[in-house]
Amino acid sequence: MKPDIKTKELSLKGLVASPGIAIGKCFSHHADGYTINRIEIPKTQVEAEIARLKHALELAVSDLEQIRGEADRTVGPQLSKIFEAQLLILEDAEFFRQVADDIARQHLNAEYVYHRHLQQTLKSLRNSRDSYLRDMAHDINATAAKVFSHLVGGRSNKLVDNKHRIALAEDFSPGEVVLMNKYHIPGFATQLGGPTSHMVLIAKSLAIPGVVGVGNLLRKCPDDAMVIIDGDNGLVIVNPTTKTLAHYREEHRRHRGVTSRQLKSIARLPSTTTDGRGIAVMVNLEIPSDLDQTLAACKIGVGLYRTEFFYLSTMAFPSEEEQTKQYHDIARTFFPNQVVMRTFDLGSDKIVGDLRNTDEVNPALGWRGIRLDLDIPDIFKAQLRALLKASEFRNVRIMLPMVSAMSEVNRTKKLIHAAMVELQSEGVVFDEDIEIGIMIEVPSAAIMAHELAKHVDFLSIGTNDLIQYTLAVDRGNKRVTSLYRQFHPAVLRLIKMTIEAGAANEIDVSMCGEMAGNRLALPLLVGMGLTTFSVAPTRVPEVKKIIASLSYEECRQLAEKVMTIPTADRVEAALQEWCATHVGQIGMED
Ligand code: PEP
Ligand code: MG
User: Which atom of ligand 1 has the smallest separation from the CA of 308?
Assistant: First the structure.
């Protein structure tokens, strides 16, 4: 008998974009499913044709304005600025003039000429080595789809017709992701697209799981097939077996977006192990959200505030005043809990738009993090001044990203000192004893942690990058994903060295990389002596419950044993086995 290919489980690899799990039947969203014909028009119709294009552009602008209103409400004004850039594209007078001139000169229909001009622009953007420009091509393409739908009679909005189903497409626009939230689309996958595109930023902030860059997605994933989106591992699983489904249902239950009620119910849990060791669980935040008040009320602080998202949402550095307001609001919301604000961590996978140095062959090893900050001293100083101004409640800490050498710490401290002197002379109140810490995410920093610890107030382990740099495995490259191993003994040794360096120098050590929220890693990290975990808000309930169920002494013995194991596979197997008997099933009630 021939195997039934249609029902065989198929795992498609893409790029990690927006975390979480979604399970359901899928549909393909053909946003650009219209046909553009070349039609010659009589000279007498030229004016009407140009007016038709103008009208279509106006309608597309009005559609986009509505989506921007929805985005304002759901993702907040900061991210919704993304739509301003798209509106500029639709309202680009020079582009319109060139298309109108060609319609008039060549006597051709509007959609054909508009499409031709658009393809020329997109071609050069798509060929660019700059990922920001390539991402921009996606936005422009999706925005233009709106114009075509008005010119050639668009399709019905397939998102609204497919509520609760997983959306697949060549690509989605940021606006479509806003609509996914409105129409309860649980997850998405795309054939094109990059993990740092605008639509991914919006998906992340709306907690819609998604995978991008899945080759052959639309060919291999027929409409109505059962699909699992594994946003954490960049996988799309088509026609999953009963066993795979059961596994992912359990994962899904674990990952579900956290609600205020769930958070409140765990707030009472002790922040200690069963044998009384105090462990702090904090959150990683990117942009202000509705949950902030609840998190603060649950006495949860912020272990990592990624300030670069302020820049990434608009591709422009916010002014000192804008930053002061935002940082101040966050510090006030979370007071008296601590907020660790990381200075701009731009570059490499965090697109830098105009700042991008396009001749970087190896951007991950290039101009990023603190290196970039120090090279733009005026902008950096403005951020440091804003952070200091926000520190008046004395609950703000400043953290430096991607530190690889002591000189970076010293240079930043000098800038902070200069900013303090200025603020003093201006009579501004700030925390004169503000604590300054560093991320440990480069092997050289972990190896030198003992020395670095003498010059800073705290260390925070960023495993997302530490794994990439230790193992020489690009965190965004799907070809080498299987080599990106958090339990690689080399990674574990660097983590241990960092924790020990902090303890020896009596400064705090926390972890804010994804590993801090991994259920297998938790007992090991507690056993290694880690006492502060900063995780995504959705992970707080489970992490707190697991920690409250652990015995430090047993974890310590586990860590001792694990540190002698020479391979990642065997470490993982040992942790699986240990957790099966010690951690059990930890549920998350609504
Ligand atoms: C990390 O590298 O672990 C980290 C927290 O930083 P980011 O993921 O923002 O690079
Ligand atoms: Mg990092």
Answer: 9
Which residue has the CA at smallest separation from atom 4 of ligand 1? 462
Using alpha carbons, list the distances in angstroms from residue 180 to 168, 249, 252.
Answer: 12, 21, 19
The pLDDT tens digits of the residues spanning 410-443 come to 999 999 999 999 999 999 999 999 999 999 999 9
- How close is the Cα of 202 to the center of ligand 2, in Å? 20
Of 578, 573, 572, residue with least CA distance to 554: 578
* Protein residue with its CA nearest to atom 9 in ligand 1: 306
Distance in angstroms (rounded) separating the CA atoms of residues 304 and 439: 10
pTM tops 0.85: no
CA separation, residue 332 to residues 19, 234, 326, 391, 396 (Å):
28, 36, 10, 9, 10
Report d(CA 211, CA 481) in Å as an integer. Answer: 14
Q: Which residues pair with 300 in a beta bridge?
A: none
Closest ligand to C-alpha of residue 534 is 1
The CA 309 to ligand 2 mean position distance, Å, reads 13
Distance of CA 492 from the midpoint of ligand 2 (Å): 17
Partners of 230 in the beta sheet? Answer: 21, 235
Cβ of 306 closer than 6 Å to ligand 1, yes or no, is yes
* Residues bordering ligand 2, an ion, CB closer than 5 Å: 441, 462, 465
Contact predicate 453/440, CB 8 Å: no
Relative to the CA of 461, which ligand 1 atom is closest?
Answer: 3
Catalytic site includes residue 417: no
Would the CB of 63 count as within 6 Å of ligand 1? no
Question: Hunting for tokens 């059961």 — which residue is that?
Answer: 246
476 CB near ligand 1 (under 6 Å): no
Q: Which tokens sit at 124?
A: 């050069």
391 and 430 Cβ atoms separated by less than 8 Å: yes
> Distance (Å, rounded) from C-alpha 118 to C-alpha 178?
24
Question: Is there a contact between 189 and 17 (Cβ–Cβ < 8 Å)?
Answer: no
CA dist., res. 555 & res. 524, Å (int)? 6
Which residues in the chain land under pLDDT 70?
A: 1-6, 30-34, 129-132, 135, 153-157, 194-196, 254-259, 313-314, 349-358, 478, 584-590
CA 216 to chain centre: 24
Vertex 207 angle, CA 70 and 545, to 5°: 140
State residue 395 phi and psi, 5-degree precision.
-120, 15
Residue 219's Cβ-count burial label (10 Å; 0-12, 13-18, 19+) is: exposed
